[in-house]
Amino acid sequence: MKPVAILNGAILAFTLFGVLPACNNTPEKKLEESKKDVTEAKADLKKEEAEYAADMEKYRADMDARFTENQTRIDELNRDIEKEKKKIREENRKRIEELEKKNKDLRRRMDEYKDEGNAKWRSFKEEFNHDMDELGKALKDLGNNNVKDKKPAH
């Protein structure tokens, strides 16, 4: 067999195998596939929305617990500073008031957050986590400083 005949046969085979399946794709079949794709996309969207709503609800509950823990810690610090020297007590009282204000401001921010979609929620959560972690660290550091201040000098 000549190379040209083999090449023509190969081209004919590729053409037939490429064209014949396309003939089976009638407009009705394409429409049915599109409907299936839309149905699947709607189901995926509903699932994502449900996950997003559940995440938001859980996060708000977790943050509410952290606000309460922070306030408990603030109350403990306020009780502890009463045992300190006047100068230290006044300095720490100001710092505690600032931290209490920060805790209240964060609670207000959480309460006022409006549902603006998953992307904005993720961004809000990331920034909010950072701010809550900073507040927690400041409360812990202030508590540690109080313990150091109370140790007797040798």
Describe this structure in words.
- There is one protein chain.
- The protein is mostly helical and 154 residues long.
- The chain has one domain.
- The protein is built from four helices and no strands.
- Helix 2 runs antiparallel to helix 3, helix 2 runs parallel beside helix 4 and helix 3 packs antiparallel against helix 4.
- The termini are far apart.
- The model has no long low-confidence stretch (mean pLDDT 84).
Summarize the structure.
The chain is mainly α and 154 residues long. 89% of the residues lie in helices and 0% in strands.
Give me the secondary-structure topology.
Elements: H1 3-24, H2 27-81, H3 86-112, H4 118-150
Helix pairs in contact: 2-3, 2-4, 3-4
Q: β content, as a range?
A: under 5%
The span between the termini is 106 Å
Helical content class: over 70%
Average predicted local confidence, pLDDT: 84
The coarse overall form would be rod-shaped
The major β-sheet equals: none
Q: Determine Rg (CA atoms, Å).
A: 33 Å
| Unreliable stretches | none
Q: Would you count the extended β strands for me? A: 0
- The helix-and-strand class reads mainly alpha
Order of helices and strands: HHHH
In DSSP terms, counting alpha (H) and pi (I) runs of 4 or more, how many helices? 4
Q: Number of folding domains?
A: 1
